[in-house]
Amino acid sequence: xxxxxxxxxxxxxxxxxxxxxxxxxxxxxxxxxxxxxxxxxxxxxxxxxxxxxxxxxxxxxxxxxxxxxxxxxxxxxxxxxxxxxxxxxxxxxxxxxxxxxxxxxxxxxxxxxxxxxxxxxxxxxxxxxxxxxxxxxxxxxxxxxxxxxxxxxxxxxxxxxxxxxxxxxxxxxxxxxxxxxxxxxxxxxxxxxxxxxxxxxxxxxxxxxxxxxxxxxxxxxxxxxxxxxxxxxxxxxxxxxxxxxxxxxxxxxxxxxxxxxxxxxxxxxxxxxxxxxxxxxxxxxxxxxxxxxxxxxxxxxxxxxxxxxxxxxxxxxxxxxxxxxxxxxxxxxxxxxxxxxxxxxxxxxxxxxxxxxxxxxxxxxxxxxxxxxxxxxxxxxxxxxx
Amino acid sequence: xxxxxxxxxxxxxxxxxxxxxxxxxxxxxxxxxxxxxxxxxxxxxxxxxxxxxxxxxxxxxxxxxxxxxxxxxxxxxxxxxxxxxxxxxxxxxxxxxxxxxxxxxxxxxxxxxxxxxxxxxxxxxxxxxxxxxxxxxxxxxxxxxxxxxxxxxxxxxxxxxxxxxx
Lengths: 386, 166
Hints:
The complex is a heterodimer. By secondary structure, chain A is of the alpha+beta class. Helix content of chain A is 64%, strand content 11%. Chain A has helices at 3-32, 39-42, 45-57, 71-82, 165-190, 198-217, 222-244, 255-272, 275-282, 289-334, 336-382; strands at residues 87-93, 98-103, 105-110, 114-119, 130-132, 135-140, 143-147, 154-156, 159-160. Chain B has one domain (12-165). Chain B contains three helices and no strands. Chain B: It is found in: Cell membrane; Endomembrane system. Chain B: One of its GO terms (cellular component) is proton-transporting ATP synthase complex.
């Protein structure tokens, strides 16, 4: 593995980070009210500005009352989607206030009252206060807070171990992986060449091994990290793809999930670092002593910025993708006045189909980049001195 | 940024960590380990097969080369044998020819000798016969000459004359 190859890979990664962070930043600026906002927001932007404060105030359950046909309701809907949820709603009839879906289990740890376990149906989609073991909880901005019996006063934030929509998504992805790759593993017992679904999966496993792990970590060490890299690659990819289905999971667009993934990479890198790796960080060889002293804090910072870039990249890419896709779908409502129902639907359909194809690519690309950069960082840590 | 931090759920983070650890362990046991083992086993098999094929090919080449050498040797041997045989045959023919001509020579020579012998014998016989005939004739002539006295006297005188003449 040559240095030049590494830096080329690193810069590709960096490019994607920067590009998508800007895309995401645009979205964020839109919220803050800068007028260079996304094209989608341009129309009726002022109205959105004004309404922004209000909708923040009564976000819980907002958007379920009445049709979603104004700018701020669309915005609220988008934000609601990007957040985790305690129930799984497929369709909502907002006029009647009914939701088609199913509740998910809520598991809470509260310092005073201990563990709480109940179904999220107790919240009635955020409309009521749920009672459990003498404590009262309500949903506020998609988060569970402890309140008094009437739900007026916030008494604290319990730690939420619920099987939320994101956790459900992860469990589905995990089970899918075990099922698919378990069947691939079994097929090797029957013969050297896999059959059925294994024929599709095997090249992917080979790809991760031969194109990601081997060149970046090196022939000598790569085997130890294969389980992590393969798991992370397929976990991220499957979750990205699940996010593109109408089930609308947004797991890899959740900062807690990407932070956890990046933290795993961070710990694996630090725990597998050899003495050359630590030498490069604290006492850079081949430079004068004053430079060594200057470089040490920079390198220490680098230890953290590397996984942090992983965290932000995946989160920003997927969030931006979901945001753009939903904005394009929303065009069918927003552009109705200018182009009529058929025209705006056609534009929306064409654009969202186009961006969906790109998202399909991004789903793979982000899984690839996360795994590739993880193995690059691991490779730096275990590299033999030469 | 506050929004990001606000969105960060410690519970979800914890659940994700637990799920990921369990998933890595389960997947390693039931998927990755057997898959990677199967793959490397297959790759080894392919590698071995390729090596074996290369070895077999090398051996084949060696054998072919050996064959060629043997063929060449055999051909050379055959050529030598043919040459030898031809030489032997030629020699035999030559010998036979020379023998035959010698024989013929001998036969001729003996024939000549015989002829010469026969001729000499014939000549000798002829000579004897001629001598005998000549004696007979001479006897007869002498008898005629000496038939009467006159003739004897005439002969005697003549002889005497011849003697005196000499």
